[in-house]
């Protein structure tokens, strides 16, 4: 007997609790997917509850989000005062004075069926040296301070490049709010003070300070670290990853711009953590992520202010956090997003990605009011894989260090617990440059190759099939491609010139 469709089980009203970038991304995605008469979306937020507002560095999937929503990219960049990002420059991670670059996009060209990295490795072992990042269009553009849209140069040496944005998180939240409200999302100003559930544990409604009550069929918890619905109401526990990622605090400050606007994020290792620099068109974001076992709040604040290269325009803000993930990100009729669902320190700028990824999976497994447990279980499984992949990739930057100049770095060498999944990846790579790649992972081979090389890890051997090829062919293949990238990049406008010509920042009145 066939199951029958139950039209009465359809979700007709979704309530998003919490605003900021997370809440308004969720609302914008829902507004794009559903007409208001099909599924109403209400977002509840309070102006009295501040947002962290420092998640200002994104990764390339964010561009996909904008395009998927039909947002004009240039307009978004102008109104969020954004700049372009080609990757991340890492300073002092392997050893003091050593730097490397993690680029977006491609890294070299295959030699027939053989991975480029293997051919490059052969060349290194046979005395033909070139820098790995000379073969990455994004790394070369970043090094030269230049930029051009790769989609407008697809059949050129930089066509395989990719990019993300540095943006003002509060302006981005405002932009997405305007987008969502224009498509029927109702915003309710107020603070949630009480949550009510049905006898089966499903959330029924929330009550605000003024007594108003808002009912819904499904609730999305975007209340940040408070986790008002998923933890305080539904009791879902938090799985702490402090043994893997012990940094637990950040101090952030905004400064005036100085010099050229670099098209990349800078991540500089410090004595008890690391420091970020994110340049926007109108200012620069700076922060120090640190481990409180090795430095005090006051010392971290002082070190950050000492290191910034522009005049501070805000007071330093202290942000406590914990790394980890909810044991269930979706329970009953409640989905947690952003800080309510978990957190991984921002070394690879993945916070906003995990929000959009969460919404992507939610739409794939969009439930009825009954919220089949099978859908929630699959969502939780897939999102956990994403969190663990990102966790392992971030730990990779730390656990290979050779630094012994501070207790923090000695702890990483002598006492840190490395996830077994990452230990296996590292061991596999050391053998022959092989990578364990899962299904639909965020970080692909160029990312792993770049960080392994930057952190001083070389495989013990290369792909034996390269010995079938004439040495001259292998070298020429690399040199021709490297020279073509360099020549092309030399013709491109500077990053600042491109911004001024195509998407200069504009000031938006409240």
Automatic annotation (TrEMBL):
State the superkingdom: Bacteria
Q: Where is the signal peptide?
A: none
Report the Pfam families cross-referenced here.
Trp_halogenase
Entry binding sites for FAD: 192, 339, 352
The record lists L-tryptophan as bound by 348
* Sequence positions that bind 7-chloro-L-tryptophan: 85
Show the GO MF annotations: monooxygenase activity; nucleotide binding
InterPro entries attached here? Answer: FAD/NAD-bd_sf, Flavin-dep_Halogenase_NPB, Flavin_halogenase, Trp_halogen
Which of UniProt's keywords are assigned here? Answer: FAD, Flavoprotein, Nucleotide-binding
Residues at the active site? 85
**Would I find Flavoprotein among this entry's keywords?**
yes
Please state what the protein is called.
Answer: Tryptophan halogenase
Native organism is Microbulbifer thermotolerans
Top-down, what is the taxonomic lineage of the species of origin?
Bacteria, Pseudomonadati, Pseudomonadota, Gammaproteobacteria, Cellvibrionales
């Amino acid at each position: 007997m066939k199951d029958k469709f139950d039209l009465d089980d359809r979700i007709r009203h979704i309530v998003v609790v919490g605003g900021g970038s997370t809440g308004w991304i969720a609302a914008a995605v829902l507004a794009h997917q559903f007409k208001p008469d099909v599924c109403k979306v209400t977002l509840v937020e309070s102006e009295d509850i501040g947002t962290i507002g420092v998640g200002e560095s994104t990764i390339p999937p964010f561009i996909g989000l904008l395009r998927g929503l039909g947002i004009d990219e240039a307009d978004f960049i102008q109104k969020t005062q954004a700049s372009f990002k080609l990757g991340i420059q890492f300073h002092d991670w392997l050893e003091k004075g050593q730097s490397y670059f993690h680029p977006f996009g491609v890294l070299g060209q295959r030699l027939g069926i053989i991975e480029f990295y293997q051919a490059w490795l052969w060349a290194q072992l046979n005395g033909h040296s070139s820098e790995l990042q000379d073969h990455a269009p994004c790394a070369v553009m970043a090094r030269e301070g230049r930029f051009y849209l790769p989609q407008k140069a697809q059949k050129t040496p930089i066509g395989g490049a990719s990019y993300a944005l540095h943006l003002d998180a509060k302006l981005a939240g405002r932009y997405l709010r305007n987008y969502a409200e224009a498509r029927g999302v109702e915003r309710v100003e107020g603070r949630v003070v009480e949550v009510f559930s049905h006898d089966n544990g499903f959330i029924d409604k929330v009550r605000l300070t003024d007594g108003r009550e808002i009912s819904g069929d499904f609730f999305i918890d975007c209340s940040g670290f408070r986790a008002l619905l998923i933890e305080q109401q539904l009791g879902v526990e938090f799985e702490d990853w402090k043994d893997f990622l012990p940094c637990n605090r950040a101090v952030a400050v905004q400064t005036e711009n100085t010099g050229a606007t670099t098209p990349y994020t800078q991540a500089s290792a410090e004595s008890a953590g690391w420091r970020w620099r994110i340049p926007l068109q109108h200012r620069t974001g700076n922060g120090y992520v640190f481990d409180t076992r090795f430095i005090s709040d006051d010392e971290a604040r002082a070190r950050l202010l000492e290191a910034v290269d522009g005049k501070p325009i805000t007071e330093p803000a202290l942000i406590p956090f914990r790394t980890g993930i909810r044991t269930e990100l979706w329970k009953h009729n409640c989905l947690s997003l952003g800080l309510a669902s978990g957190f991984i320190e921002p070394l690879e700028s993945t916070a906003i990605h995990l929000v959009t990824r969460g919404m992507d999976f939610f739409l794939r497994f969009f439930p009825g009011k009954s919220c089949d447990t099978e859908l929630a279980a699959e969502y939780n499984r897939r999102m956990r894989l994403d969190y663990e992949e990102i966790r392992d990739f971030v730990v990779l930057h730390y656990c290979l260090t050779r630094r012994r100049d501070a207790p923090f770095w000695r702890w990483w060498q002598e006492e840190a617990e490395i996830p077994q999944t990452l230990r296996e990846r590292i061991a596999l790579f050391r053998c022959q440059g092989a990578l364990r790649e899962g299904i639909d992972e965020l970080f692909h081979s160029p990312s792993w190759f770049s960080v392994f090389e930057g952190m001083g890890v070389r495989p013990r051997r290369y792909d034996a099939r390269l010995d079938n090829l004439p040495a001259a062919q292998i070298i020429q293949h690399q040199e021709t491609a490297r020279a073509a990238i360099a020549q092309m990049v030399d013709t491109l406008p500077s990053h600042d010139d491109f911004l001024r010509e195509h998407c200069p920042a504009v000031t938006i009145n409240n």
